[in-house]
Amino acid sequence: MPLVRMVSGRFLSLSRLKPEDLEIVEIAHHLSLINRWGGAVAGEYSVLRHSLEASLRVAQGFELEALLHDATEGLMGCDLIAPIKRECPEFEKIEGRVCRVIAERWGVPFQMSPEVREVDLRLRATEERDLMHGPVTYKNPYRAKIAYLSRDQTLQLFLNRFEQLTGEPVNYWRDLNRLIREARSDAA
């Protein structure tokens, strides 16, 4: 299986991925640059923002699962839309392996809970109503509209939320620079 290059310059093998290989700042960085809905939104709205919104709306006890429910996309490089994903069984197999490692690393369920699934579906409806042109095909959107946040604001809020939920201290620039130094020394 090919290697995936992370923002730090590290290369990860998705077939030999281990929990200790995962770094939340890299996943967050990648998710912040991947648009929801295959880019069909009218404006900037990333998978990272969607994950943050899910974490803020889900019932207590499911917040970390909701925050990380699309983390595989940060490692696999895309938010592959469902109709295409269903046609790509090999992609789904790789995604399942990556999801298991994420679940093991941060202690979240491998299978999405019904609580997180409901929030995900309601957010789809809200995103469709607030961020897309055309008819709303999903039901039961949240009443509150999605407000604009910059990429930097979203990154900071996501990482703050992660730290709040896990107790793991996170500093985007410090942690990313550490990973870059490590990748450079490994390459030397």
Summarize the structure.
Helices cover 55% and strands 3% of the residues.
List the defining traits of the structure above.
single chain, 188 residues, mainly alpha, Hypothetical protein af1432, two-stranded antiparallel sheet, 9 helices
Principal-axes shape call = globular
Give the mean pLDDT: 93
Low-confidence parts? none
Subunit arrangement of the protein: single chain
Output the CATH class name.
Answer: Mainly Alpha
Number of helices: 9
* Radius of gyration, CA atoms, in whole angstroms: 16 Å
Q: Look at the helices and sheets and give the structural class.
A: mainly alpha
Strands, count = 2
Task: Describe the model.
- With 188 residues, the chain is mainly alpha-helical.
- The protein has one domain: Hypothetical protein af1432 (Orthogonal Bundle).
- 55% of the residues lie in helices and 3% in strands.
- The protein contains 9 helices and 2 strands.
- The chain has a two-stranded antiparallel ribbon with strand order 1-2.
- Strand 1 (3-5) and strand 2 form a beta hairpin.
- Helix 1 (24-32) runs antiparallel to helix 8 (151-166), helix 2 (47-57) packs across helix 7 and helix 2 (47-57) packs across helix 8.
- The radius of gyration is 16 Å and the shape is globular.
- The model has no long low-confidence stretch (mean pLDDT 93).
